[in-house]
Design a protein that fits this description.
Layout lengths: L2 H22 L7 H16 L2 H7 L4 H35 L6 H34 L32 H12 L9 E7 L6 H9 L2 H6 L2 E8 L4 H11 L11 H12 L4 E8 L4 H8 L9 E7 L2 H6 L6 E2 L5 H12 L9 H13 L4 H10 L6 H9 L12 H10 L3 H9 L11 H10 L11 H14 L4 E3 L2 E3 L2 H11 L3 E4 L13 E6 L18 E6 L12 H4 L5 E3 L20 E3 L20 E3 L21 E3 L2 H4 L16 E3 L19 E6 L7 H5 L9 E7 L9 H9 L9 E5 L20 E5 L17 E5 L6 E2 L1 H4 L12 E5 L6 E2 L1 H8 L4
Parallel strand pairs: 1-4, 1-5, 2-3, 3-4, 8-9, 9-10, 10-11, 11-12, 12-13, 13-14, 15-16, 16-17, 17-18, 18-19, 19-20, 20-22, 21-23
Antiparallel strand pairs: 6-7
Length: 847
Amino acid sequence: MAAEAILGAFMQTLFQKLSEIALDQFRSYRGIHGKLDNLSGILSELKNFLDDAEAKQLTDASVRGWLAKLKDIAYDIDDLLDRYSAKSMHLRLRTQARVSSPTYFFRRNLYQYKLKQKISSIMERLDKIAKDRATIGLQSLGEMSRQETSERPQSSSLVDDSTVFGRDRDKEEMVRLLLSDSRHSSCNVCVIPVVGMGGLGKTTLMQMVYHDDRVKEHFQLRIWVYVSESFDERKLTQETLEAAAYDQSIASTNMNMLQEILYRVLHGKRFLLVLDDVWNEDRDKWLSYRAALLSGGLGSKIVVTSRNEDVGRIMGGIEPYKLQKLSDDDSWSVFKSHAFRDGDCSTYPQLELIGREIVKKLKGLPLASKALGSLLFCKTDEEDWKDILRNDIWELPAEKNNILPALRLSYNHLPPHLKQCFVFCSVYPKDYIFRREKLVKIWLALGFIRQSSRRRLEDTGNSYFSELLSRSFFQPYQDNYVMHDAMHDLAKFISMEDCHQFEHNRMHDNAYKIRHLSFRCTDTKCMQFGPLYGYTKLRTLVIMHGYKSKMSQLPDGVFVKLQYLRVLDMHGSGLKELPESIGNLKQIRFLDLTSTEIKTLPISIVKLYNLQILKMIDCNSLRDVPQGITKLTNMRYFEASTRLLTRIPGIGNLICLQELEEFVVQKGLGHKITELHDMDQLHGQLSIRGLNNVADRQEALCANLKAKEHLRTLHLIWDEDSKVNHLEQQEDILEGLQPHLDLKELMIKGFPGLTIPSWLASSSLPNLQTIHICNCRSRVLPPLGQLPFLRNLDIAGATEVTQLGHEFTGSGNLKCFPVLEELLLEDLPNLRKWNFDVAERLFSKIN
């Protein structure tokens, strides 16, 4: 049902890829560059009709069919570009040494011919789609706004308290916040956001609070305004006046005049204003409407109910009050009050048992309890109740199911790039525990994250997750996240023919259309891979294992059939061997082999030129990887044990790598510190061990640490058991290892030289916050007291240091250690002198 929104985001990514590939890889290919431009032009034109298709697809089967065909073509174009991009890279690597060979030109010409044929075939399909568009009457809406459709009835301040359960504590807390005299900054008016997912009862809570006798007595004026999707400042000002019982007729529609009247009505009065169901994220609109509200008296409160935490922050509110789900007992009370006459179920004990099981599925969502209870009102047939227990909430009769529109509204307000990220999550089962970092990497691998010139993909992906979290599509769970069952049902309902969970050997009716699949294995019987072969267009395959399941190997044909995979997750399986056919997955970006029992990787893995994320943590049986693995230059994450990574020669070829926890310097070719020269994308922490194996200062400079602007923590470590001669040379080496000025934490351990480097000063590393100097032989400590942001300082094993004086704190009138919070001095056996004024200046700064 949301194919158009997901398709819009997908096509935007496709345009970018078409542009990049046309300009880069196919510039010299005669005829192909122009064809790709034509392809992009037709897609761009068709994209303008997606909004109209969205409005018509619910009632017009021909529009739904048109969207499905367009989506298939878009996927095929993406597959074509990926496949031939990988093929192009493979040809270049194989023929670098013999570019002019006849074989090379033959393969290149054959490659171009096949590519032209496929593009021409796709162009024919696109032309037909374009003609069909006119036949079914789709129009380009351009910038025109679609007529608003109300998906939720307007709220009022009235509520039937007899059907509200489990909110007494929330009500008392809200009353406390409203009656408190605390002021928000310098303003008389305080904004209190109440946030939570749709159907959780935010409006109901505020209805109870609004009519509480204590609240009525405290506020001189109470106003209730239902806002919903349209935040029209003029209209809201007028409605606020009307709700404030302004008894004079308002003929004017002039915003300035309306604001002035509202200003006078509220002036000096302590008022309570409830703005129910706010979606506005435009701060300027809020400021325009708020101008008149600021005239209120001290203690005035504005309560904003919203599904989005950011809405409250935009309105300058205090920390949002996050409404939690109901307990099962309270949910049952809501359910039975609507399912049984007078809420009395005593004469139907069997229905009560079924009803309590239904309530458990609803995970504390009062709207769902109310809806299902109402649906079963006065029905006494057990089969009717069991039908509800077996079905998802979306399979209920539409005219009696207000859960769908309530949550669908949240989805409709998502931008397209977030819609496809959310809908993808339906591939996982209910109650699945999402790990944020992994999910973002999967989104990245699937091309869901939009490229930005100012931010790296991972940071953009993290902002996507944060936005979905703030809008209640995810909920925190311990250190990870879960999705409420109703939200999961919504994603499943919307995804339709894109995502599927393969269970009980039941294949989807349109398996060839499914793009993302989870394959659950709960016992040894699920190891029949035959049905999988029907899912020929899969981009994602997640093999999920129960504790009883065993899977030592995969059939060789599985990766011949599923050649479009971009994400393959086999985390936690008992897999002992990967078939050679893994090399067929030319488009794969994400491969998770974490906690498997694999002993070796097939040589064909070095053909996976598009691979970006390879996860092999806790692969304790794995002893080695193929030598050519460093040809995979698109790799962004290579997650494996340090023992394994240090054995890979030439790791410096992986110039896109974002993380490298540890690099061990060795004297052999491919293991020298010069491997770090081009790895400027490294983020986070890097430990460099074995610095005693660096030959000289020039070699140290070749590590190019000064250019690694994304590193925040750097550990420089010499092997303590190695004998080092030429101490002056070691001092030169450390001088050559100067980090980037944005470094936040530095460790120097085991340094055998007598002089700490000149760059360890405020002018070279002004942003340092933490320093560890361990087991170093330096006699004099550098002027660390001049580092302006140094908070933590740890000096241990400085056996040659004899005094702490101005050389340590810095001289002159500059403040020493201006923000130091923690100082640890340990194992300084030869420390004899500590200048009194230095000690006094130092300890006065430590908390």
